[in-house]
Amino acid sequence: MPTLFKRPAACLIVGALALALTGAQVAVAADKDPPPRVANGLAQKPPMGWNSWNKFACDIDEQTVRRMADAMASNGMKAAGYEYIVIDDCWHGPRDAGGFITYDAKRFPSGIKALSDYVHAKGLKFGIYSDAGRLTCGGRPGSQGHEFQDAKTYADWGVDYLKYDWCSTGTRNAEEAYTLMADALREAGRDIVFSMCEWGTAKPWLWASSIGNLWRTTGDITDKWDGKHDYALGVLRIVDLNEPLYPFAGPGHWNDPDMLEVGNGGLTNTEYQSHFSLWALMAAPLIAGNDIADMDEATRAILLNTDVIAVNQDALGVQGRRIRDDGDLEVWSKQLADGGRAVILFNRGAEARTVSVDWTELGYPAGLKAEVRDLWAKKGLGRMKGRFAATTPSHGVVMVRITP
Ligand code: GLA
Q: Fewer CB within 10 Å of terminal CB in the chain, N or C?
C-alpha cells in the first residue's frame, strides 16, 4: 500500500479545495464528527497478529519468535487473516557509539534483520517495540532523543509494525512525542503500522487518528475475568473502558483495548469466547498473546473462528457497542457493510439466562424477516421475524449475524 501521510494542515487545504469543487458532497461529510483524518493510509482493517508480551514477557528470543512464525503460517492463523509477528519489550541491546540501537546478541544471535527476513519468507509481517521515553517499561533503551535513528534502523530491518510505549516519559507531551515518532517513520520511507501504547492517559482517541493507526485505551490487560490486579485490568474492566469510545474508531485508526489473553489459562473457555467475541465486535486489533505453537483445541476454535473474525474485519470499520444494559444481561450490536448486524447477547451473571433482542433495537422494522446465523455454533438458524432470543451461559455470549 502506498504511504499516504497527510498532516492536519494538508487536510485543511485539501478540504478547502474539495469544498470549492464539490460543495454539496463535502457539506454532507462535514456534518460528521469527528472529521475524516488520515495518519498513513495503513491498517484499513483492525490489525491481526501475535505479540510476545502476554505469554513470554521479557523471556523472548529468536527461537521462540521463529516458532511463532512457523505456527502462524501453518496452523490456519495466516489463512484466517493473522499477519503480524510482533516482538514486544526486551529485544534490545545497548546503543552503539553512534547512538544506534542494537539487539540483545545472546537472545537474538542471528540479528533482527535475519529474523524479519524469516518472518517475511513465511508470507507474514514483522513488528517491533520501543518507547517514547528514555527507557522502555522493561528498562531497555527507549527512543527519546533517537527517534529518527531508530525509525531508520527499523526500516533497514524491514519492520512493518511499531508498538510505541509510554514508560519513563516524565513530563513529555504525548501528542508531541507520538507525532515526532510518526514523522520519523514517515521520513524512514517504509510503510510501518504505528501502534501507540499510551494507555489512554491523555485521551489519545481525541488526537491520535492523524498520527498513528491504533492507540491503547486502557492500562494493561491481565489474564483475569474482572477486577484490578496491581496495575493491570481484567477483561470486563477493559471492556467497560473501551466501549464508550466507539465513535473514535474507523478504518486506519482503531481503539486498542490491548492484546488477547485467549489460551493463557486464567479464564474458562466460555469466558475466552466472550473475550474474543467482544474484541471482534469492538473492531479491536486481534493480536493473539498466547503460545500459538502450542494450543489446545478449544483455544484454536476460538482464535480461528472465521465467522467472528469476519465481523472484526468488516469493511465498514464500525466499532460495535452496547445497545442495551439490563444489569447482568447485555445486548451489543455492530453495523456491517452488507446492511447486516453482528449481535452479541452477553450474560455477566452467575446463572444461564435467556437474552433477547428486538429488530427495532437494531434499527430494523419490527416486521422484517432476517436470516440469523449463530457464529459459535456455526449454523444458520433460519429467517426470523421481529426478534431473536437465546439461552446465554453464565459469563458467556451468544453471537449471531443478522442479515436482512
Ligand atoms: C507496558 C505495555 C505492555 C507491554 C509492557 C512491556 O506495560 O502497556 O503492553 O508492552 O509495557 O514492558
A: N
